[in-house]
Request: fold
Amino acid sequence: MYKLWATILKDLRLLLRDKVGLVLMFVMPITLVLVITSIQNNTFELVNDNKVKMLLYNNDRGLVSKNLIEAIEKIGMFEIKTILPKQNQHDIQYQMKANDALIALVIPHDYSQKINTQALQTATKALSGLGMPTDSKIDTNEVSILEIKLYYNPVLQSSFRGSIQGALASATKGIEGKQVLAQLYLLLNQKPAKENDEITNTTMITAMPAVIAGSYTIPNATEHNIPAWTIFAMFFIVISLGSSIVKEKLNGSFVRLKTLPTNFLITIFSKQIIYLVVAMIQVVVIFSIGIWLFPYLSLPALHLPTDLPGLALVSFASGICAVSYAMVIGVMAETQEQANGFGAASVVILAALGGILIPSFAMPHSFSWALKISPLHWALEAFYDLFLNRGNWQDMLFHLLPLLCISIALQLTTLLALRRKNLI
Reply:
């Protein structure tokens, strides 16, 4: 036990001397967490909370266009600003830029007239198909297709633009349906319907996230980013630990240890203990920032999951895997430049494949196999089971088992490499 304690003290002194390694393990991930979460939180608010600013050019003065505007307002997705009708496309683009609007909607001057004409034709055809008498003077020839122009800022992503177009399409279809039903009432009863809403009610759709434990808390940018960049910080231990191992190999420390009455594996075990403790400190520091500092920065606070033992288990398993990976890089590398260069580059690549830099759902299907080889993917999914799905440790087993298998494989690789280099 004394030998292990002495080795731990030696490795701790080496770690404290590595100022660059400490910066990479703590300052860099903290900066990433603050910057990325701030940027992503603005995106989340744009999609989830803030309304999209819309400029409205209404060239029609009929009742139908007014009903359409009311229907768009009821969607609750848009902040509408009415602009005096203009036909000049350049003026629309200028107004969008001046008002910081993402979209502009132009309603044509004959919108109400054409909608009423189409509704009357549709109702007449329907009654004629049922063998009921209709007014023969009504022209049943189809009118030209209506066109409502939607201008959008090119910065809008195609998926978000599709959501906007879908919302507007639902509003226009609803107005068209009401007008058809109103014309049917007029043709059948010779009087308008009492209230169109009574005959066009639809099923209410209640949206809620699908979570394991039945909680309906909507995940925010903090719950996405804190676990992700904590894992990234853990694996960047490779810079400090890998460099330390290479340095001791080059200065002959490993060879001298073989001449002493001690087991070399104690040295390996000591380094893993030190850096596993560092990984746990990283978890505490970054999670504490999310809990206490984020509210002062107008960012959503991190709320820890109810299953704290499960959180500790995932953190511990991720730390072991990160330390195991760093040990492999340190033992295999011949120089510090190799350890630092390959270690940093490989962690960034594994982070990209694992869904930390790029969301896994955004990757091409051909890259789905790559997710399974990245330990960062399994660690991130285990954290997501806790934070996003509100699950417990049993729900995480599917992701923890591959992570532990990768750790065991890395440990065995380290031992085989040490034996091949005659270091043990």
Remarks:
- The chain has a mean pLDDT of 78.
- The domain at 51-199 is CATH 3.40.1710 (abc type-2 transporter like fold).
- The chain is about 65% helix and 5% strand.
- The longest strand covers residues 52-58.
